[in-house]
Each structure stands twice: as C-alpha cells, then as structure tokens.
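On clarity, I found the account of how folds are encoded harder to follow than it need be. Since the whole study asks how a given chain folds, the encoding of that fold should be made plain. For illustration, here is how one protein appears when written out as sequence plus structure tokens:
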Amino acid sequence: MKKLILFLHVSLDGFTARPDGQMDWVKINDDLFDLAQQRTEVSDTALYGRGTFELMDAYWPTAGDSPNASKHDLEHSAWYNKVKKIVVSTSLPNREDITVLRENVARQLREIKQGEGKNIVMFGSPTLAAYLIAEGLVDDYWLFQNPVVLGRGIPFWPQTEQSSELKLISSTAFANGVVCQHYQKV
C-alpha cells in the first residue's frame, strides 16, 4: 500500500501560513532541499491543493532549464516533470497532464493509496492537509518547525473530534534553526 507523506512548514505556535496565506517566515537551506529530494525519490505521485499546485506549476516545469539552475532546481524540476500530479480543486479546469479530484476526495485517495506504485507526497497545501488529517489519510508527517511565533494564521492541526496518535521516528536540527520532525501514524 502506498503511503501518503506530508511535508509542511509550521511555526512554533502551530501555524502553516500567515492569515493572508503568506509564508515569508519559512527558512530554507540546502540541507532541507536534500531531505525533500530523498523523499521525492520514493514517491511517484504528487498531491496538491489548487493554490499550491498553481504556485508549483508556475515554477517547477522550467526551473531546471536555467543556465544558473541550482542542484535542487535541476533535481526537483526533473522529478516534477515526470511525477503523476493530483490536484484537489472544485475550480481548476481539467488538463491532460494532471488528475483533478473534485468530489468524494477521501474515497478516491483511499483507492489511489491501494494502487500500484511508489508513495504519494504532498508539499504544503495546509487546507487540504487539515482535511486529509481529519480523514485519517496521512501516514507520514515531515514537519519543518521554524523558529518563529506567528500569533495567528492558518492552523496546522484540524479541528476534529478524531484523535491521531503519532510516533516520532526522527528529529533533525538544521543550522538555520529549523527542526525537522518525522512522525508516522500509529
């Protein structure tokens, strides 16, 4: 069975973005990129909410074409261009190069997880992440806790009656102050 792996930056007080959706507080470095690259290598499907997909799709298809492209841009662009993309949206028009899930999302994702292939990875998409957590669909959590307190914003954990028990697999502190915590659903 495929795992659904969530990669998400979070503030110390549990927010994934400012109230307006901005993530200008996120600290990124090469070590974080290398860790993300390791996870994408064991994934053949990318899952996005509409907003995150539009940001990714505006950059990654050609990011590796620049003569000054970084190692990360080259690697992630190559992965992005070959991976199957699934977007959860009620407003995104159909396209031949992506699968758009508009309704019965939880049921459809459970079916996809039962299929053949590698894992499903999801970068960002905090609203979709909250829904998937509430539905019990996330198997692995890679939380990049940034050393910042936002005070308010888009919360990471959904308001739900269902509890989730997680097991800490690893914790890695990076030179930029970010701590990556890898949890698996028990």
About this structure: Helices lie at 30-40, 50-63, 71-82, 105-114, 126-134. The CA atoms of residues 16 and 153 lie 7 Å apart. The chain has one domain: 4-185.
